Amino acid sequence: MAKQPLKLKENFDRNIAAVLQKDLGLKNFWALPRLKKITINVGLGSFLASKKDYSQVIETLSVISGQKPVITKARKAVSNFKIKKDQPIGVTVTLRGKKMYDFFNKLVNITLPRIRDFRGLNPKGFDTRGNYTIGIKESTVFPEVNQENIEKIHGLEVTIVTGAKDNEQGHKLLKALGFPFQHPTIINS
Q1: Does any domain span residue 19?
Q2: How far is CA 90 from the centre of its chain?
Q3: 133-175 confidence digits (pLDDT tens)
Q4: What does the alpha-carbon distance between residue 6 and residue 93 come to, in Å, rounded to a whole number?
Q5: pTM for this one?
Q6: Residues 6+ away with beta carbon under 8 Å from 24
Q7: How far apart are CA 155 and CA 135, in angstroms?
């Protein structure tokens, strides 16, 4: 019987953590940065502007994430954007635990390579706390999404929240987990 490959969390605990601890120069194993959560967001602006039904976005996000999304509503009215208070403005999902690791693995190994002309992710997508945000222009790059059932293609935003103290720790964590960052020579050209 063939040996199954280690799951991402097990691989992190058994192999990656020791290398990362040495690379970051941390003495305490529990001080290592880890994945905390992944949030997936879709803005409904284009659906609301054209007065289209956004139930397709909810279905797509639930298929991609494996759990039911939450509809975010406007806290206050903004007349310049034609937004009323309590009007739906987005759809979001927060993944933790096993679903988070499964989604991360699917994102790195299946979804990102399916993006047309993909040359790696820009390492400048970090905020100051080591969290990384990716904008994906088409939700159809996810293998679960059936392109024939989609009326209007929409993008989404994936934010990977880490326990890193700064961008350097976040970058090293994601790189150790197999995140496909661009080579520095590609960024400068």
Answers
A1: no
A2: 16
A3: 999 888 888 888 877 777 777 889 999 999 988 888 888 898 8
A4: 26
A5: 0.84
A6: 32, 33, 169, 172
A7: 7
